[in-house]
Design goal:
This protein has about 290 residues and is an alpha/beta fold. It contains eleven helices and twelve strands. Strands 1, 2, 4, 5, 7, 8, 9 and 12 form an eight-stranded mixed β-sheet that branches. The protein has a two-stranded parallel ribbon with strand order 3-6. Helix 2 packs antiparallel against helix 6 and helix 5 packs antiparallel against helix 6. The radius of gyration is 18 Å and the shape is globular. The chain starts with 7 loop residues before the first strand and ends with a helix.
Amino acid sequence: MIKRKAILGIALGSGSARGWAHIGVLRALEAQGVAPDIVCGCSIGAFVGAAYVNGDLDKLEAWVSKLNWKDVVGLLDVSFNGGLIKGEKLISFFSGHFVDHGFSDLAKPFACVATDLANGREIWLREGSVAAAVRASIAMPGLFSPVLHDGRLLVDGALVNPVPVSLCRALGADVVLAVSLGSERNGYSRRDSAAAKPENWAQRLLNGIGKGAQEGEQALPSLLEVLNGSLNIMQTRIARSRLAGEPAEVVLSPRLRQLGLMDYHRGPEAIAEGFAEVERMWPAILNALES
C-alpha cells in the first residue's frame, strides 16, 4: 500500500460505451493498493463512478461483462420527444440494481457534471438523488431526452466539461488522475461503419436509424454514425482545451478507437484496455502520488 498524505481524486470522463474502461482503470488502481478519495464523473463516467463509490463495482462489472445487444436494446425506451431515448428504463434499472441513495449517504465524496440547456452553464450535481444526477449527466443531446432537475433542463455534461478535473479540485483533491476516452477517436470514419457487422435485428435497427440515401457507390452514414462522429469531435476538442487549462497530474487515455457509440455489449474489451492503460502509465501515477 502506498503511503501518502495528499488527497487523490479521479475524474472519469464521458465517452458512451467506451466508458466501461473506467471499470478497468479502477480495478487496476485497486490492484496496486490505490483507492481514490474523491470521485467525479461526466456522462458514462458518472454512471460508473456512482456505482464505484456506492460499493457496487463488482456487481457492475459482472453485469457489463454479460451484456449483449438484446440486453442493451431492452433498456432503451424509444421516444422522439427531445431525444431518441427517454432514459427512464435505464435509470430505473440503475437505481434499482446499483445506486438508490442520496449523495450524503455515499462512502466518499462524489459529484457529476451536467449542462444547463437554457444557457450552456456547467452544473455540478452534489446533492439529492444520485440516480437523478447520473440521469442528467448522461443525457446526450439527440440520443437521450433532457432532464428537468431543480427547475433546470439539463443535458450531458460532456458539452462543457468532458473530464471534470476542476470538479475534483473543488472537492479538495490535491492529486488528480484524469481518464480521457476521446483522444484516439476524433470524428467519423467510413472504415468504422464498414467494420460494423450487425449481429441481430436490434443492432441493425440502431445502426440504421436515419440512414441516408445512396450517393454514387457509397451510402451516407446513419443518423447514429453522424451523431457519434460529431460528438467525438466536440468532446475531444473540449476535453483537450479543458485539460490544457486545468491539467491533471496524470491523464489516462485507454486505446479504444475500435469501439463505437452504442457498443455497450463489448464491455470486456473496454475493461481490459482500461486496466492495461493503468499498467502502462503506472510509473507516472506512482511519481505523482509519491511527489
